[in-house]
């Protein structure tokens, strides 16, 4: 199991200089503000810079290349010729020119290696209006690039670390494993980079206040009974922790730092753990500090804001100037006011009283408030819930309120926003795991059973029921998910008409061949599904009416495209990163092919070819998207049809690096394998590509048989089970309004596939 035991050794670095004692920068930037990456040689700045430039569509500038373009020499040769003192003079001049001329639309890497005082001042000035990110790396990797004896290495590390911390405003720990350290069983080396790519790009979007939507469930700060997984920094340090449980269905991670955590290595340690958490989960992270007289709270705040957490706690009672400084420097991080009292919440609010709470929350601009009491009992759980609702109505912000004791668990159950839950295998304190907490809500009739089904002509062998049912069980939900094979489409409208607020039926997954026909039965269609012109997920939803009643209606979604898109993006090697001229081949012309074309479009592909055994259907698909793109004002998208597998690949287009097969693996009627291969010439990309097979079953499809041997040329094969899980995650969240327990769903599919003898890569 993955663990954190390979984390950074103590770097011997001093704490980050408390920026809150200085005039804080706001950490809010113009949307096109240039990004600057600094750090030691070997930290991976250039790789992350390339990732950032592609993802954000910015110009990448490497300082060494810029230096060479200006003086016709590399920094190393210049130093050898003219000496270090002269180099520092030129370095300062060129650095100032570089930063002055490229304030917008760029990603700059390579500055600050000499750690000069003049460069420090330049970088600190640049950091007032631009994100300057210190890229950290583990000590073992840095030793490979810094050739020095142990004593000198430690000295270089200490000086450099202090320099980079002082002139940057963000930390990112690059946990990419060196390919030379990987064994054959580990992830294909180029794809290892995809993990850090997702985390780093998400980190950048957070810095700029454009967080990417990673969940289809309710907002963590809503009042829909959301949960925070309680963790401590020491728990993450332990080698025994199974990281998979972190993505187990909670709505947020609440990471607490205790006084003993405030040591010299805290900045690097926290940065490491934040990258690891973001790699393992998709939920917001809340940082909380239990400081005491031994610790400087401002140090924690400065270190915390450097990792751009989604939320940060701040004591409600304390120095007003601290809260104001945090508010000024927090960027796009939410600020949660916290207050703990010795008496139960709801019976009394000892100090400060309720009037002071309202005034301070409004004055200091908190985004939410958390109040915890002690010595609660089941008897006062209702009064605690009433108190929370009244306070929320008064403040107009999310209120978290409960009694933090074993006897006060009932108040936690009734708290509807970010109630604390523990890791399933580790009951710490008064908190229960999510499963037991959800089961307790059932006792209060606050979680009701729902029924879902997958319907289609032949769904008896579908693995979806096992995948969803395992997730429900893991999260303590009483729901059920069944497979229903139907002969004709007329059965689906009958199912939809039978639903009502009083019965259990709440949604259906639409399988072949009804994904387009279902559109006419729906009152509302999600924009993506409307653009795709196909629906595979239908959910019973409601909206409030002016008279106070609720109107129930069926809304259609498409999660197929999400499954295909995520599988393409997660398996497309850096050599095949999507750029102008990238080409995709879609095989098939049904609802899944519609979804695959849309997935490619969302990823940035603007040139696609469709092949289908019935060319007229391929033309309909191509015409649909060509007309759709014109209606959107996108004149770059163009889909063409390849009439025959004997046709040569069109000479005016690059060979495809993305191939998606959307045809069934078995004939619906005879259940015999569908025999189909494409021209080998179409698979001649010199850098290979990614092949996604959406079908799954007991046999390799003929296309998979054809492409698997091409793995040596760079082709990566993604089977239909991976697509099933990816789209199933989104479908689960739409059905339940809860984050999906990803590792549970993935494991359930793998186990069921093995039992059924299904082939998977």
TrEMBL record:
Spans traversing the lipid bilayer: none
A GO biological-process term: chorismate biosynthetic process
InterPro entries cross-referenced by the UniProt entry: Aldolase_TIM (IPR013785), Aminoacid_DH-like_N_sf (IPR046346), DHquinase_I (IPR001381), NAD(P)-bd_dom_sf (IPR036291), P-loop_NTPase (IPR027417), SDH_C (IPR041121), Shikimate/glucono_kinase (IPR031322), Shikimate_DH-bd_N (IPR013708)
Residues in Shikimate dehydrogenase substrate binding N-terminal domain copies: 454-538
A Pfam family reported for this protein in Swiss-Prot or TrEMBL: SKI
Gene Ontology MF terms in the entry: shikimate 3-dehydrogenase (NADP+) activity
Matches recorded under Gene3D superfamilies: Aldolase class I, Leucine Dehydrogenase, chain A, domain 1, NAD(P)-binding Rossmann-like Domain, P-loop containing nucleotide triphosphate hydrolases
Domain SDH C-terminal: 720-750
Coiled-coil positions: none
Region annotated Disordered, chain positions: 1-24
Positions of the Quinate/shikimate 5-dehydrogenase/glutamyl-tRNA reductase domain: 581-627
Family named by the database record: In the 2nd section; belongs to the type-I 3-dehydroquinase family.
PANTHER family per record: BIFUNCTIONAL 3-DEHYDROQUINATE DEHYDRATASE_SHIKIMATE DEHYDROGENASE, CHLOROPLASTIC, SHIKIMATE DEHYDROGENASE
Protein's UniProt name: Quinate repressor protein
């Amino acid at each position: 199991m993955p663990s954190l035991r390979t984390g950074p050794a103590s770097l011997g670095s001093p704490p980050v200089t408390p920026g809150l004692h200085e005039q804080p920068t706001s950490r809010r930037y113009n949307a096109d503000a240039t990004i600057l990456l600094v750090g030691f040689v070997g930290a991976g700045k250039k790789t992350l810079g390339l990732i950032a430039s592609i993802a954000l569509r910015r110009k990448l500038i490497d300082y060494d290349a810029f230096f060479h373009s200006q003086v016709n020499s590399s920094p190393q040769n210049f130093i050898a010729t003219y000496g270090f003192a002269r180099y520092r003079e030129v370095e300062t001049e060129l650095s100032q020119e570089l930063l002055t001329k490229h304030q917008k639309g760029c990603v700059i890497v390579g500055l600050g290696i000499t750690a000069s005082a003049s460069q420090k001042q330049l970088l600190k000035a640049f950091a007032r209006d631009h994100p300057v990110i210190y890229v950290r790396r583990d000590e073992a990797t840095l030793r490979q690039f810094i050739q020095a004896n142990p004593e000198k290495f430690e000295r270089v590390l200490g000086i450099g670390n202090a320099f980079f911390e002082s002139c940057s405003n963000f930390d990112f720990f690059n946990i990419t494993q060196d390919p030379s350290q990987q064994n054959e069983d580990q992830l294909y080396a180029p794809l290892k980079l995809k993990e850090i790519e997702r985390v780093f790009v998400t980190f950048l979007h957070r810095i700029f206040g454009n967080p990417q939507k990673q969940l289809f469930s309710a907002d963590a700060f809503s009042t829909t009974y959301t949960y925070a997984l309680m963790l401590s920094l020491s728990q993450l340090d332990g080698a025994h922790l199974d990281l998979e449980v972190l993505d187990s269905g909670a709505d947020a991670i609440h990471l607490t730092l205790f006084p003993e955590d405030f040591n010299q290595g805290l900045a690097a340690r926290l940065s490491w753990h934040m990258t690891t958490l973001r790699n393992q989960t998709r939920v917001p992270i809340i940082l909380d500090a239990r400081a005491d007289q031994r610790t400087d709270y401002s140090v924690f705040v400065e270190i915390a804001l450097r990792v751009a957490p989604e939320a940060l706690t701040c004591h409600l009672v304390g120095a007003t100037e601290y809260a104001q400084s945090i508010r000024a420097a927090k960027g796009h991080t939410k600020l949660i006011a916290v207050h703990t009292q010795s008496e139960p919440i709801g019976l009394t609010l000892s100090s400060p009283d309720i009037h002071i709470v309202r005034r301070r929350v409004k004055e200091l601009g908190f985004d939410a408030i958390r109040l915890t009491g002690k010595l609660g009992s089941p008897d006062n759980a209702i009064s605690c819930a009433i108190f929370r609702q009244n306070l929320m109505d008064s403040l107009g912000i999310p209120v978290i309120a409960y009694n933090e004791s074993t006897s006060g668990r009932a108040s936690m159950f009734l708290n509807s926003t970010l109630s604390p839950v523990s890791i399933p295998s580790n009951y710490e304190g008064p908190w229960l795991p999510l499963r037991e907490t959800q089961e307790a809500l059932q006792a209060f009739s606050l979680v009701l059973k729902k029924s879902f089904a997958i319907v289609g002509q032949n769904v008896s062998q579908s693995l979806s029921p096992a995948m969803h049912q395992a997730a429900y069980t893991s999260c303590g939900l009483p729901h059920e998910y069944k497979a229903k094979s139907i002969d004709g489409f007329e059965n689906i409208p009958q199912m939809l008409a039978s639903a009502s607020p009083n019965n259990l039926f709440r949604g259906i997954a639409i399988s072949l061949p009804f994904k387009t026909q279902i559109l006419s039965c729906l009152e509302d269609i999600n924009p993506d599904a409307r653009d795709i012109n196909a629906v595979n997920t239908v959910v019973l939803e409601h909206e409030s009416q002016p008279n106070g009643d609720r109107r129930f209606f069926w809304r259609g979604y498409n999660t197929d495209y999400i499954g295909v898109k995520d599988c393409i993006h997660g398996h497309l090697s850096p050599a095949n990163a999507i750029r102008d001229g990238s080409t995709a081949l879609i095989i098939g012309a049904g609802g899944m092919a519609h979804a695959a074309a849309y997935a490619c479009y969302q990823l940035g592909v603007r040139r696609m070819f469709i092949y289908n055994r019935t060319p007229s259907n391929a033309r309909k698909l191509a015409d649909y998207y060509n007309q759709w793109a014109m209606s959107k004002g996108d004149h770059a998208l163009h889909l063409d049809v390849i009439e025959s597998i004997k046709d040569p690949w069109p000479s005016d287009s690059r060979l495809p690096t993305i191939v998606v097969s959307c045809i069934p693996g078995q004939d619906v009627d005879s259940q015999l394998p569908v025999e189909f291969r494409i021209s080998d010439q179409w698979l001649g990309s010199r850098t290979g590509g990614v092949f996604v097979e959406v079908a799954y079953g007991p046999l390799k499809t003929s296309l998979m048989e054809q492409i698997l041997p091409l793995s040596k040329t760079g082709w990566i094969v993604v089977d239909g089970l991976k697509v099933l899980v990816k789209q199933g995650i989104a479908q689960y969240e739409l059905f339940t309004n809860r984050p999906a327990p990803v590792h549970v769903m993935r494991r359930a599919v793998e186990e069921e596939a093995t039992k059924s003898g299904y082939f998977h890569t």
